[in-house]
Amino acid sequence: MLDENVLIIGANGSIGCAIVDSLYKAYHVIATYHNNCDTLEKYKSQIDVVNFNVINLNLIDGFVDKLVEEFGSIKSVIYVSGYQNIKSIKFISIEDCKRQFDINYFSPLIFAKSFAKKNVHSNQNPSLIFISSLASKKPEPGILNYSASKAALDNLCIGLSKEIKPIRVNAVSPSFLETNMTAKFPKIYTDEFVKKLESKYPLGLGSVNDVANMVKYLISDEASYITGAVINVDGGASTL
User: Which of 43, 62, 153, 196 is 20 to 30 Å apart from 106, CA to CA?
Assistant: First the structure.
């Protein structure tokens, strides 16, 4: 399967790296990053690493076409990039709201549009996967706009599954995970906060590997009859 191209958007984050690690031995991985790719250094001889800023919506289509020209058609696109900014409603700005939607919703929409072109996706069980969040179903103070953008992403997943068939479109929805993104908010995601969640979730806290394992399954032939699904990988947190 190393001749099958898998494009991972936002591969330099904690979840992205875990997905790279789960796939690079079986597929030809094309991993995108922005600003820093240090976390991908150990894979550099085994994958292709490309710098791209997903906020540049008008450049996405040309970027995808260029990848296809260089590597050939793409079996799967996995959109991992995400942006969260924790602010109460009285401090949030329209610019910040737009940025979150650009990265969390509009960019995956444009990547989906590009991937759906006949000359881009392969004919062998092509699939598109979004990384969503439990927040899409359980909005909390401080992350209302983030939650709304992920809810839009869930709806995009379901709608696209009907529109761009035979491409399968699914989303993976994890609960809270300790990642490089959550580490940016140490005053919010304190040790006490994490321990409280760990005792609250039926199966405790998961890891980024749990998400990566689900992604690996969803792009495989074993999942060839699964589309339009937003799959909770949350240790039961969505039941609370």
Answer: 43
Which is catalytic among the residues 43, 83, 146, 189? Answer: 146
For the chain, 240 residues long, give each residue's pLDDT as a single digit of tens.
678 999 999 999 999 999 999 999 999 999 999 988 999 999 989 999 999 999 999 999 999 999 999 999 999 999 999 999 888 889 989 999 999 999 999 999 999 999 999 999 999 999 999 999 999 999 888 899 999 999 999 999 999 999 999 999 999 999 988 887 777 778 778 889 889 989 999 999 999 999 999 999 999 999 999 999 999 999 999 999
Helix (H) or strand (E) holding 166: none
Q: Annotate 80-90 with b (16+ C-beta within 10 A) or e (fewer).
A: bbbbbbbbeee
pTM score, two decimals? 0.95
Q: Give ∠ CA 117-83-73 in degrees, rounded to 5.
A: 20
Distances (CA, A) of 103 to 57, 91, 97: 9, 20, 10
Q: How many CB atoms lie within 10 A of CB 195?
A: 11
Q: Give 84's contacts (C-beta < 8 A, 6+ positions apart).
A: 100, 143, 146, 181
Amino acid at 134: L
Strand partners, 51: 33
Our answer to whether residue 146 is catalytic in this structure is yes
